[in-house]
Design a protein that fits this description.
The chain is built from 13 helices and nine strands. By secondary structure, the chain is an alpha/beta fold.
Length: 320
Amino acid sequence: IFQSSVPVFKKGEIMENIKVDVIIPAYHPGKEFATLIKRLEKQSVPIHRIIVMNTEESMWNKEWEKLSDVMEIHHLAKSEFDHGGTRAQAAELSDADVMIFMTQDAMPADRELLAELLKALEQDENIAAAYARQLPNAECSFVERYTRAFNYPDRSVVKTKKDMDQYGIKTFFCSNVCAAYKKDIYQKQGGFVRRTIFNEDMIYAGGLIQAGYGIAYAAEAKVIHSHNYNCMQQFHRNFDLGVSQAEHPEIFEGVPSEGEGMRLVKKTLSHLVRSEKIWLIPGFVMQCAGKYAGYLAGKNFRRLPKKFVLWCTMSPNYWK
């Protein structure tokens, strides 16, 4: 039975009394990184520190350090990077009450991104994490726009263990593209797994759900973030997703992903027909095939030859 600790958050006081750090893993960041920092500087909630975990110092532009007085940079070698371990290392550097993890290509849609994430955490002391809504960027394809709307609807929700029958594996969904975590609960739960190929956010979120905590989806907290992956990119990405689930049966065993995937496929096909864009269906079907083939191969990676695994993965350093 979940036993709550003394709450750090009190309603109505969160904006003034809570210390917030933003943590950003970076790798060869481009001009979008400067835009991200500038938008963070304009947030309505003051940021205590922006902690950047940069992979390969040679790819870092020192001019970016002038963009914020609260930004600090920690460099690491590419061989040292790990999706979970690097974020866990950053969390150890933070002394904030709330840690907000972002990716370098996630752009705050307005000045209230952090405020809305904090409001979501404030709803209940048992809510341990909150993640933002992801909106499509200007280059986003028609199909990906629908996928974004499916995965990130305009209605907020709090998911707990009792919602497993309704949401299935989506109960564990939480994206480090932009997500906030209460530091005290993070430490109590042991934080992000130290070594993982991918999916560190859902692994941690799954543990939260199992421990009796809640995860909030904050639809009013918005970032602009989307990708137009081709069929092979979908294959590689979903291979790593399958590997992460296979390596963590304590979280994912007995909670299949295929049902939610099929629901998205059916909804998207119906949307394409209703929108009179049936010429997009063959490409969409190919992408779905790539996703499922990659996922299935990843779930069964232990049966595959090492050379084939290295061809399938998008994270070859993980296997060294």
